[in-house]
């Protein structure tokens, strides 16, 4: 499912703006999850006896657990990866290399903040 979706979207993305091609992997993974999750969970879902006794709570418990995971997973992942990073000047685009060499001729590495810029 993911391969078929990725190949089809890749062929469609050639006619769309270049930024759309960046979303092809996201849509491919989303498509395969739409296929995978129902097949894998159709027989044995989260806390089967409890959910059979209280079917009204089924959606709210699952949404609550997913929300709880997201509340803790997002800050944890942000904390795992460093906010400041560096890159060699030689690996940048030629116009950026030229601008950096004009302002700092001896610089071989640049440092940058991967977070949001506030002005």
UniProtKB/TrEMBL annotation:
It comes from the Eukaryota. Keywords: Amino-acid transport, Membrane, Mitochondrion, Transmembrane, Transmembrane helix, Transport. GO terms for cellular component: mitochondrial inner membrane. Pfam families: SFXNs. It catalyses: L-serine(in) = L-serine(out). GO terms for molecular function: monoatomic ion transmembrane transporter activity. It is found in: Mitochondrion membrane. One of its GO terms (biological process) is serine import into mitochondrion. It is a multi-pass membrane protein. The chain crosses the membrane at residues 20-40, 61-82. Mitochondrial serine transporter that mediates transport of serine into mitochondria, an important step of the one-carbon metabolism pathway. Mitochondrial serine is converted to glycine and formate, which then exits to the cytosol where it is used to generate the charged folates that serve as one-carbon donors. Belongs to the sideroflexin family. This is Sideroflexin-3.
């Amino acid at each position: 499912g993911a391969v078929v979706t990725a190949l089809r979207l890749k062929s469609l993305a050639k006619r769309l703006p270049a930024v759309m091609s960046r979303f092809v992997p996201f849509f491919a993974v989303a498509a395969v999850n739409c296929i995978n999750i129902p097949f894998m969970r159709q027989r044995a879902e989260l806390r089967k006896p409890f959910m059979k006794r209280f079917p009204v709570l089924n959606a709210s418990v699952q949404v609550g657990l997913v929300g709880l995971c997201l509340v803790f997973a997002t800050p944890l992942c942000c904390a795992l990866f460093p906010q400041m990073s560096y890159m060699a000047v030689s690996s940048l685009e030629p116009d950026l290399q030229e601008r950096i060499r004009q302002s700092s001729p001896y610089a071989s590495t640049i440092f940058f903040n991967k977070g949001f810029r506030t002005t």
